[in-house]
Amino acid sequence: MISRRDFLSVGTVAAAGLLLSPKIKKAYAEQVPSMKDNQGSKLILLGTMAGARINKSRISCSQVVVVNNQLYVVDCGYGVARQLVLADCDLKKLKAVFITHHHDDHNLDYGNLLHLARMGGLREKVQTYGPYPLKKMSELYLEMNDYSFNTYQKQLGMVTLKPLIEVHEIARDGLVMEDENVKVSCVHVVHPPIPAFGFRFDTPDRSITISGDTAVCPELVEMAKGSDVLLHEAMYKPALMNLVKRVPQYKGLVRWLVKAHTDVEDVGKVAHEAGVKTLVLTHMVPGDNPNITEEMWAEGAGKYFKGEIIVGKDLMVI
Q: Which residues, in sequence order, are CB contacts of 297 under 8 Å at separation 6+?
């Protein structure tokens, strides 16, 4: 349970300001690079907020690993296709989609991304990966849009979507896929009550581990060891009671959040134990509270992790 003292500390610390370490200051000062620089692999944060609510500052969770201009999307929160376009990514280059788990802030635009990529000129088959029931979801999306898709196909001779999707349901830890650009591995993470996975991408020039939604998970720490980048969800526990006041319809929210997500200080411990070079915070819980400054997020993780810390923002390129 969150104490009243911790709850009140959110506004107090924000007002007082914090002394930041040089590495954190450097992370804030550096200009975000452009996708037009095609050297090496890139991680683009497309959406960095937890939950499927709409607000002006962030959209729901999604990110893409870009290697040789090929797109490997991880999670498909609302607006993922538009964010890819805003990030100067070519939807025709969509190579694979990975869904960490089936909550709506991670899969709401799964089908829409595939459809919009096809509308944007996609002609190569896309491999999609995720836990059960990804196959049924894919079939139902095609069925839901069957009337519209058939109309386009008959009138315009457009390539149909179904042959462009090859679905793979993940049930166990280990190697997920490997191609000329990347090797992808996964582990089960702790996000009750549903199956959830974290992914590791090993590219020719670096390694990127993506936690997905999880509480502290030893298996994720093990998989992330030695990664150049750890992209990890983050929760600011002192602000949870205020979040409940804003969404009183969600009874039991705090109790579930604490079981299923990772407090930002514990994220720092995970990064330290894994020995990663750079920690990037995403899937912010809450992601739309202006009293929680970027400095506060970074200082929480920085209590235990002394490497580079980046507080994620939508469309940031890493």
A: 234, 236, 264, 281, 284, 311
Structure token digits, residue 101: 């788990």
Q: In which residue are the tokens 């509308």 written? A: 119
Q: Are 92 and 69 in contact (CB under 8 A)?
A: no
HSE, side-chain direction, 13 A CA sphere, residue 161: 26
Query: Are residues 103 and 220 in contact, defined by beta-carbon separation less than 8 angstroms?
Result: no
pLDDT, tens digit (0-9, with 9 covering 90-100), for 68-121: 999 999 999 999 999 999 999 999 999 999 999 999 999 999 999 999 999 999
Euclidean distance between CA atoms 1 and 255, whole angstroms: 8
pLDDT tens, residue by residue, 193-244: 999 999 999 999 999 999 999 999 999 999 999 999 999 999 999 988 777 6
Range of the domain at 64: 4-317
Total domains, the chain: 1
Domain CATH for 83: 3.60.15.10
What pTM did the predictor assign? Answer: 0.87
104 is written with which tokens?
A: 């709506």
pLDDT confidence of residue 264: 98
CA distance 304 to 259: 21
Instruction: Give percent of the chain with pLDDT exceeding 90.
Output: 74
